[in-house]
Amino acid sequence: MIKACIFDLDGVLVDTAHYHFLAWKRLAKEFDYELTEEINEELKGVSRMKSLEIVLKHANVSLENQKKELLADRKNGWFTEFVHNMNPNELYPGVRELFSRLRRDNIKIALASSSKNAQTIIEILGIQNEFEAVVDGTMIVHSKPDPEIFLLAASKLNLSPADCVVFEDAEAGVEAALAAGMKCVGIGNPMKLKEANRVVNAIQNFNYSDLQKI
Ligand code: B16
Ligand code: MG
Fold first, then answer.
1. Residue 107: what pLDDT?
2. Mean pLDDT for each consecutive 10-residue tract of the chain (214 residues)?
3. Best substitution site from 9, 10, 167 to test ligand 1's pocket, by max atoms within 8 Å of Cβ?
4. Does ligand 1 have an atom closer than 6 angstroms to the CB of 117?
5. What φ, ψ does residue 179 adopt, rounded to 5°?
6. Which residues neighbour 191 within 8 Å (Cβ) at sequence distance 6 or greater?
7. Beta strand 133-135 with 164-168: parallel, antiparallel or unpaired?
8. Distance of alpha carbon 99 from its chain centroid, rounded?
9. Phi, psi (5° rounding) for residue 152?
10. Domains, the chain, ranges and CATH?
11. Do the beta carbons of residue 190 and residue 184 sit within 8 Å?
């Protein structure tokens, strides 16, 4: 019996993944490196510093930590400019309906995002009161694919991992959910998210009657 749904944020509830991509692409250009959508897949769900390291590795650039901190801050400045221009209409279609069905059925709702900007984003979207537990990038040591973020969400909900289903758009996130002992619905490309128990191309296409059968 599924007692909780744990949602990733970027790429599941809202398309901030695109803003991350634009900000990383701008930074990569400074190293004459053209970041593609394909390589961007590797950045999804992982922490800001880990993402920077992946970009630098592809650009064949090696830097000391202090410089890396500066670059990560710069990218975050560009990203948060996008975030502050967002509005509640950017919530993906189907999210509000899914939340109300879950509430009607007494299934708990939690957020588990690697983003240190998650709190700001959910406030701008006006969904901060939808969650019984929120875990973000400021509360964890190991980012996805480590299961820490999902285990912390389950413990905040006072549930065991087997009671929870995770909704994730990133390969690293699917891996983390399964490593936590949870079921996982992948949102996106079934070829990329093939480890997930179900995959739909957008959250609005998730068949709610499937929830207890996953
Ligand atoms: P920030 P999620 C993740 O959020 C993003 O998918 C990933 O691309 C980003 O690097 C990470 O948050 C950290 O974000 O720089 O805002 O702390 O998908 O776990 O909701
Ligand atoms: Mg995501």
1. 98
2. 97 95 97 95 93 97 97 98 97 98 98 97 98 97 96 98 97 97 97 96 97 95
3. 10
4. yes
5. -65, -25
6. none
7. unpaired
8. 17
9. -65, -40
10. 4-14+89-213 (3.40.50.1000), 16-83 (1.10.150.240)
11. no
Ligand 1 binding pocket includes 16 (Cβ within 6 Å): no
Mutate to test the pocket of ligand 1, among 75, 113, 192 (most ligand atoms within 8 A of CB): 113
Q: What are phi and psi of 182, to 5 degrees?
A: -110, 165
User: Is 7 within 8 Å of 136 (Cβ atoms)?
Assistant: no
CA distances from 97 to 92, 104, 118, 203 (A): 11, 11, 21, 10
Residue 161: asked if its preceding bond is cis (omega within 30°), the reply is no
Cα separation, 91 vs 7, in Å, equals 13
3-class secondary structure, 48 = helix
Q: Are 22 and 29 in contact (CB under 8 A)?
A: no
Q: Is the CB of 188 under 6 A from ligand 1?
A: no
Structure-block tokens of residue 47: 């922490």
